[in-house]
Amino acid sequence: MLRRCFLGGVAGALSLSAVPGGVMASSSGLRVPPEEAPHQRTFMQWPNSREVYDDVEFLRMTQSTIADIANAIAEFEPVTMLAAAEHHARIGRMVSGAVELWDIPTEDLWCRDAGPLFAHRPDGSLALSHLQFNGWGNKQVDTHDSQIATRVAERLGLPVIPSGVVGEAGGVDYDGHGLLIGHESSWVIDNRNPGLSRDEIEARLLAAYGAARMIWTPGVRAEDITDYHIDSLARFTGPNRVLINLPDEPDEADPFHLAALETHDALIAGGVRVEVIPEPWERRVDSADFVASYANYYVCNGAVIAAEFGDEETDEIARDALARHYPGREVVMLNVDPLGELGGGIHCATQQMPA
Asked: pLDDT tens-digit profile of 292-347?
């Protein structure tokens, strides 16, 4: 099942909003650290559902890619792979000894969306700041995946603090210093949060992350399964600083290109420092649905794990940009083309547990 399928339609005008006086909308006291802060471990999910993957050969390729990502991260920090026990013997033959297997059943691989969002409480202890996953608006089977976050919290003995919103962590990005960005299309939508206004959703997201301000842009509704997650387009690399992946020659007939330009302009208008890196011109996979996002990288202890697409020039531009934005970290670039064919990337497949 592809996460992108072009159906038509572009969302409305951009807007910038903030909580009055920079005060958080809730007294939850939670604070999600930036991704580049130290981690205890990385969580990942094993894809296995035949309801999701009807092509067995492609499922095997996807599983191999997930194992490659896990092994790359495990060179720098512990990795916990979530999967039903029946799959552990096979997974164990594919991953290094530094990858721990937990008996938590999964359907698909998208741990950024279905996995646990961790936050610090005022005393420094960890809790689960819970964004309820529902299969991207009930578009995909999620019998197990919608329960993963709370099952991880139960195993770790952590409290679960509901956010009051349905959605996915891939639908927002946070600089860890008070600022969130997100597309309206994946939050202000009836398949996630019927009856809630954008202001109500914003207040709950600010509380869930411990943020003070949010920049909204329209995004794109109903053209891909995620309703256009921000994490394949724009990522915070530090306080009020964003790396954004844009095409050199935007296609005015492509709603994703138009929405990406709107997001770029909104970030600039919101006072964010923005660096643009190009999309690859040459790719190994020639498909309109293929997501070639350098922005969908993952920051772990001592490294940045990113995708390469076979375009020597743009791969090197992306590598250099990541090295500048994350000095002192090794940049490891992997061929993760099966995830691009599914409409995602490395960030979508990972979720950090802060130290």
From this structure: 999 999 999 999 999 999 999 999 999 999 999 999 999 999 999 999 999 999 99
* 3-state class (DSSP) for residue 7: coil
Whether residue 4 is contained in a domain is answered as no
Residue appearing with tokens 């996979």? 285
Measure CA of the first residue to CA of the last residue in the chain; give whole Å.
35
Check if the beta carbon of residue 77 is closer than 8 Å to that of residue 41.
yes
> How many domains does one find in the chain?
1
Q: How far apart are CA 229 and CA 219, in angstroms?
A: 8
What is the model's pTM? 0.92
| CA Rg value for the chain | 19
Sign, CA dihedral 65-308-72-245, equals: negative
Domain membership of residue 103 (yes or no) is: yes
Contacts of 57 (CB under 8 A, 6+ apart): none
Give per-residue pLDDT as tens, 14-42: 333 333 223 333 457 999 999 999 999 99
Q: Which residues are the active-site residues?
A: 348
